[in-house]
Design brief:
The complex is a heterodimer of chains A (66) and B (405).
Chain A (H helix, E strand, L loop, with lengths): L1 E4 L2 E4 L5 H7 L8 E5 L2 E2 L15 E6 L5
Parallel strand pairs in A: 1-5
Antiparallel strand pairs in A: 1-2, 3-4, 3-5
Chain B lengths: L1 H30 L1 E3 L1 H9 L5 E4 L3 H6 L1 E2 L3 E2 L5 H8 L7 E4 L4 H12 L5 E4 L2 H7 L4 E2 L6 H6 L1 H4 L5 H10 L1 E5 L5 H11 L3 E5 L24 H12 L4 E5 L8 H5 L5 E4 L4 H14 L3 E7 L2 E7 L7 H4 L12 H4 L5 H18 L8 E6 L4 E6 L21 H4 L5
Parallel strand pairs in B: 1-6, 2-4, 2-5, 5-6, 8-9, 8-11, 9-10, 11-12
Antiparallel strand pairs in B: 3-7, 12-13, 13-14, 14-15
Classes of the chains: A mainly beta (66), B alpha/beta (405).
Chain lengths: 66, 405
Amino acid sequence: MKLTVNGEPREIDGQTIPDLLVSLDIHETRGVALAVNGAVVPKSKWDEAELAEGDEVEIIRATQGG
Amino acid sequence: MSGCKTGNRRLSKKDDDVSSFSKLVEEVRQQITETEVDVVKARIDAGENLVLLDVRARDEFVDGHIEGCEFIPRGFLEQRIENQISDKSTPIVLYCGGGTRSALAARSLQELGYQNVESLKGGFSAWKQAGYKIRVARSLSQEQLSRYSRHLIIPEIGETGQMALLDSKVLLMGAGGLGSPVALYLAAAGVGTIGIIDSDVVDRSNLQRQILHTDDRVGVPKVESAVASLKALNPDIQVRPFNTRLTSENVLDIFEQGWDVVVDGGDNFPTRYLVNDACVHLNIPVVHGSVFRFEGQVTTFIPHDGPCYRCLYPEPPPPEFAPSCQEAGVLGVLPGIIGLLQAIEVIKLVTDTGTPLNGRLLAFDGLQTKFRELRMQRDPQCVCCGDDAEFTGFIDYEQFCNVSL
């Protein structure tokens, strides 16, 4: 399935957020937030949310600096 | 004899003046609608959506005015009315001291195209004589009128907004990269009470971005340096320093002092989670900002109305995934940009103006000069603000974040 991740085109296997994270080699998900088409998907919903062809995904990380 | 003659001439000249002014007022009165005070009072009490507009001079307004009125001095009326009341079909009742200036003002507004303008017959004097309620305004001092003059002429801020800023109490977590610009601009804007929590002393490596501090204050507690800078910029405000690390033990003492907004400009995850949990518990909005090298994030968390920090990041990243500014570096300008976005959020919240970043995360990429905006919702399953969440006290945040501070 073709997606855009942080502005870059990506091809992934699977339909779910965990599938996407595996494809991107992201194994540590603490401090990671993910938005699909501009809306953050709460972490408690990651397993049930389905991705669709052409979705724009943004992955951001918590930063602590101030 | 000649003196008498001159006197007569003067008298007759004065008579001419009076009569031409009276004539003008008489003419104007034919062209406008004058309404008795009891009629206007009854319409207000019945809930009619009319705008009562005081057109007297500032000192008259300050001495006492009709409650709920708007105020534009006669001399600025034509210039400012369209900013203040843009819909020309709005019913407007103008008043002055006795009903003459407001009659003239009413004609001017008609000439500008306002369709439902009336003048209060007998003006403020008649209103007072009828025994109706008046309000004596708190007024800004001459120095404040001058200091905040550029705010006062913005319709969205004005005197009401400036008073709200002066009455507000804003607590800043951190007097560092983010806290510096936030504190300076909020002090300049006239936020009446600014609290600042920080346990550090000024280090020379801070000065590349922490513009509250100066080279000659290296080694001085940051909150002490902050007080000096802010009072120098604006002696009109109060600054409350908290020279301490925020902990689970002292958080309630500090946060339960009537703060309207907390600004999170901390530099570590344990404090950020503590600020979040305390503010959700106490129902205080948090304006959040964080920075990393060329990147920053900013949002506003309004407890129970939108998401909280834990809805976005239920857990902090492990330390090796999220280095601090000390470990990873930060471009000095970056906290300036993020901090000022936090400052404008505070001003909007305090003055109830515009749309806050509640439910929107703004991520800034300084290398590309790009903003991304992500929508966020409260997570009903959030352990802090979710439907079943229950406050059971503050945890050990260092252990939660797997760090020791």
